[in-house]
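Hi R.,

As promised on Friday, here is the backbone we talked about, encoded as structure tokens. Could you run it through your design pipeline when you get a chance and send me back a sequence?
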């Protein structure tokens, strides 16, 4: 069931303090030591492909684990938790449930993905993942909010997909695309409707590698709003490389803002891909030009397979970096992506507490 539009309420809070996002779902899932059998559960026990790396499926097979993760992040200080729906579309889920034609000399193309979009199993699975994923976060937000007297929010996570609208995978045919804009739009429309049905407060188009994919998500959001008579705040968040460009579409942050300003998002920001030290110059640029609130949830440094979380930075390090972001007037939302556990978020929340949030340009 759709929540009321909390935009005005969130804007009021953001004028007073920095709101805290959650940390890394995937990183935290690994602390529960689940194996393939646990990920499959009885429901997917006979699936031909492994699903252990399909974290979104755990909302259906291990809902207690996902609910507990949300609870831990809320209790650590998160004002907002993202749903466990990063890859909850038929297009992304086909990686785990449909034979890859490339294994037999074929290729993925719009004809292949049209069959994916018409597959009843994948459609029902994607719908259920989004509805149930949203419900799990909603319950914990309400429970912890009630216990603490501090309202908590749910952000419906809309991830980047496993296909690109901007680039061709065929070196001999630059015009070829594996999927069409309308197909991506259709997949996102179902995801948006499922997240809203489950009760999220915010829609977060996140970890943008390909701006055209994200454009399709933004169009899907607006079409659902118009057709269903609902309205929720939207957050846009991109993943940028060492040069400050989105990974696939190669947009710098100024181009990113220009591409999404018309959406009138509650916030625009950066997440994933870089640690806070490497992200800061690009975040500073975005903060300077964005005419809305700014979010940041970087990785806990760069990957390190020898570190306990797979990333170098410990909670104390993230606390210092994020406090620095806050004291420099760069952010309105603070959180963590890959490598950030509930303890990292607890430290980040402590670090930004009491710091004046970034002011919107006049």
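Update: got your reply. Pasting your designed sequence below so it's all in one thread:
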């Amino acid at each position: 069931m759709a929540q009321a539009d909390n935009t005005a309420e969130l804007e009021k809070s953001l004028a007073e303090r920095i709101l805290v996002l959650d940390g890394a779902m995937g990183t935290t899932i690994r602390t529960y030591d689940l194996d393939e059998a646990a990920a499959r559960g009885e429901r997917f026990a006979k699936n031909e492909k492994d699903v252990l790396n399909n974290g979104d499926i755990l909302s259906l097979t291990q809902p207690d684990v996902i609910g507990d993760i949300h609870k831990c992040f809320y209790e650590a200080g998160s004002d907002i938790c993202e749903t466990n729906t990063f890859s909850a579309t038929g297009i992304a889920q086909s990686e785990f449930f449909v034979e890859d034609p490339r294994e037999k000399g074929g290729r993925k193309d719009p004809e292949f993905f049209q069959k994916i979009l018409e597959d009843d199993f994948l459609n029902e699975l994607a719908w259920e993942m989004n509805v149930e994923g949203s419900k799990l976060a909603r319950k914990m937000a309400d429970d912890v909010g009630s216990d603490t007297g501090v309202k908590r929010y749910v952000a419906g996570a809309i991830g980047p997909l496993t296909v690109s609208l901007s680039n061709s995978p065929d070196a001999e045919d630059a015009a070829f695309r594996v999927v069409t804009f309308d197909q991506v739009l259709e997949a996102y429309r179902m995801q948006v409707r499922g997240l809203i049905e489950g009760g999220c407060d915010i829609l977060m188009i996140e970890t943008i590698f390909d701006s055209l994919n994200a454009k399709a998500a933004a169009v899907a959001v607006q079409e659902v709003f118009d057709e269903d008579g609902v309205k929720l705040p939207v957050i846009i968040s991109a993943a940028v490389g060492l040069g400050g460009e989105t990974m696939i579409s190669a947009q710098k942050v100024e181009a990113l803002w220009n591409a999404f300003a018309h959406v009138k998002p509650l916030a625009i920001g950066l997440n994933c891909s870089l640690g806070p030290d490497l992200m800061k110059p690009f975040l500073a640029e975005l903060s300077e030009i964005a005419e809305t609130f700014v979010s940041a949830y970087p990785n806990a440094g760069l990957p390190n397979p020898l570190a306990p979380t797979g990333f170098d930075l410990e909670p104390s390090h993230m606390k210092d970096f994020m406090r620095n972001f806050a004291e420099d007037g760069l952010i309105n939302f603070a959180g963590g992506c890959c490598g950030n556990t509930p303890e990292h978020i607890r430290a980040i929340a402590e670090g930004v507490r009491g710091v004046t949030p970034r002011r919107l340009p006049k």
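One thing I noticed while checking it: The first helix runs from residue 7 to 16.

Thanks again,
M.
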